[in-house]
Amino acid sequence: MRVRGLGAIAAAVMATTTLVTACGGDSDAGGGDGGGGKVRLALVAYSTPQAAFEDIIKAFQKTPEGKNITFTQSFGASGDQSRAVANGLKADIVEFSLETDITRLVKAGIVAEDWNSGPTGGILTKSVVVIGTRKGNPKGLKTWDDLVKPEVEVITPNPFTSGAARWNLLAGYGYKSSKGADQAAGLTYLDALLKNVPVQDDSGRKALQTFTGGKGDALLTYENEAIFAQQNGQELDYVIPDSTLLIENPVAVTKNSAHPAEAAAFLKYLYSVEAQTIFAKNGYRPVVDGVTGFDWPAPPQLFTIRDLGGWDKITTEFFDAKTGKVAEIERKLGVATEK
Amino acid sequence: MRRSRVAGGTAAGLGIAVLYLSLIVLIPLAAVVWRSADEGPGYFWRSVTTPDAWAALTLTIGASALVALVNLVMGTVIAWVLVRDRFPGRAVLDTIIDLPFALPTIVAGLVLLALYGPQSPLGINLAYSRAGVVLALMFVTLPFVVRTVQPVLLELDTEMEQAAASLGAKPFQTFRRIILPNLIPAMLSGTALAFTRAIAEFGSTVLISGNLPFKTQVAAVNIFSQIEGDNTTGAAAISTVLLVVALVALIALDVLQRWGSRRG
């Protein structure tokens, strides 16, 4: 059929373009100077730090340790990336949004048990959960309590399709439950909050898109994402609530890396002031001292996932699809509004 | 649809075809079904009937059935117009009918959001509703019925219609007694394809549906959330249900088609 043929050609053209682009990206990353002993490291990471990594790799290649090292880079949704590595995708360095994505690799025997024994506990970048608002904050939304008022629409991704979206809900939960001490109060809050969520996109980036596309009064997001949006000219303001959750993104080298010395050198470089400054430029809070020129407001009450019991406990208790407490709330909301 | 006999093909050809089909389609499908039974039939049943999975499945199958019906009617009308009517731009229209196939489905979702989303220039906002899901499915399945009916219409002998008219048949009578019976097999196979494609759709629905569990979350997105929660067995179980529904639909439509072509 003639038109089917056209479709096939279109598909072939698209596939070729993708291939060419992919190859192009690859050779961009490979900026080595052709000397002997060239090493190629595979970096597998979640999507948001992509721009930062591109700059960091360029800077690393200018250092003596990084001189002959080139990189293949893969960026995508944190959970997808982690599962890909668990299922055999070659990786020398992994960086994810959530600690559980590293834990999966520890269980699979790909990352060493003591990956988090370093001075920062395996954490490479930090951020905080913030409330994004329309320009000028017309509804005056500043606190977690403001978000559960009637007539306020809050955009946050679905915590069951976006692992990282769990940070958002846990931030509000942590505030209302006094860092987990009063679980009932925290859950009541989540129930009220989710009632005000008209859309649950499958990822943080899509939620940002939905919000900048005109839907909702508030967006639960991370400080670095809000900064990213502003840097890209999106109409968005944000406030840091007085009490919020510290986001910690973990990094690790793999056990089965073919170039363990080079991978370790790159990991070490990621913690250098130089690399951390690049992360800071991209909106992440640095994890080492000595990064200057940025102003990171410190919320009076900043708590961590460990205050709430740690990811293992929280994941089973809250986000198990069948028995989790958040699943229960979603179920109740779904049934209640079905009528 | 006429079935050719094996006699024409060589044994080598048959071997290659079977091997290829096995590697690309049959074994992966079998693997999903096998995976879904990992934790026993009780677990399978529980995975499929959790309230969110069940809501996603019923929404998906219901919306897909509706979309298939719309396609059955509208696809036939479009094919008719493309074959029988002469108007400027017909060739262009004929070419862009396949665009929903060529477009990455996530782009389809973006396109629909731009036109029927919160900032709709038409003032029609279907985003984050079940209507939005149906719209996305209609978009991605549009070509199926058109492309199955079109060649049949092209080959249809107009002399039959002229004969009927000369014997005094009214246009509608001619359509119902002469044209429709010839078209029905193609219409049904296009509809079946549209239905099975719709139940599998992910990309275009994930944006416009808003992914609200129990309300707008489709089965493919629910499967994704099971995977995200490291419940691969549950994901495989829901996938298996979709597979069975697709298979039943294809078989049912095939039976209907034979019945239709016998009557034709």
TrEMBL record, chain A:
For the keyword Zinc-finger, the answer is no
Concerning InterPro entries, the annotation shows:
Thiosulph/SO4-bd (IPR005669)
Protein's cellular compartments: Periplasm
The family database entries (Pfam families) matched by this protein are listed as: SBP_bac_11
Signal peptide limits: 1-22
Q: Could you tell me the keywords of this UniProt record? A: Periplasm, Signal, Transport
Similarity remark: Belongs to the prokaryotic sulfate-binding protein family.
Q: PANTHER family of this UniProt entry?
A: SULFATE-BINDING PROTEIN
Designated name of the protein: Sulfate ABC transporter substrate-binding protein
Identify the species of origin: Microbispora maris
From TrEMBL, chain B:
Any Pfam family from its record, for instance, is: BPD_transp_1
For this protein, the record's InterPro entries field holds: CysT_permease, MetI-like, MetI-like_sf, Sulph_transpt2
Q: State what protein this is by name.
A: Sulfate transport system permease protein CysT
Organism of origin: Microbispora maris
Keyword check for NADP, yes or no. Answer: no
- Where it mainly occurs, coarsely classed, is membrane
Location of the ABC transmembrane type-1 domain: 57-253
- What membrane topology does the annotation report for this chain? Multi-pass membrane protein
Q: Which residues cross the membrane?
A: 12-34, 54-83, 95-116, 128-146, 179-200, 234-256
Stated role = Part of the ABC transporter complex CysAWTP (TC 3.A.1.6.1) involved in sulfate/thiosulfate import. Probably responsible for the translocation of the substrate across the membrane. Part of the ABC transporter complex (TC 3.A.1.6.1) involved in sulfate/thiosulfate import.
Where in or outside the cell is it found? Answer: Membrane
- Complex formation: The complex is composed of two ATP-binding proteins (CysA), two transmembrane proteins (CysT and CysW) and a solute-binding protein (CysP).
Tell me if Transcription is a UniProt keyword of this record: no
Could you say which protein family the record assigns here? Belongs to the binding-protein-dependent transport system permease family. CysTW subfamily.
Which controlled-vocabulary keywords does the entry list?
Membrane, Sulfate transport, Transmembrane, Transmembrane helix, Transport
Could you read off the lineage of the organism from its UniProt record? Answer: Bacteria, Bacillati, Actinomycetota, Actinomycetes, Streptosporangiales
**Gene3D superfamilies of this UniProt entry?**
MetI-like (1.10.3720.10)
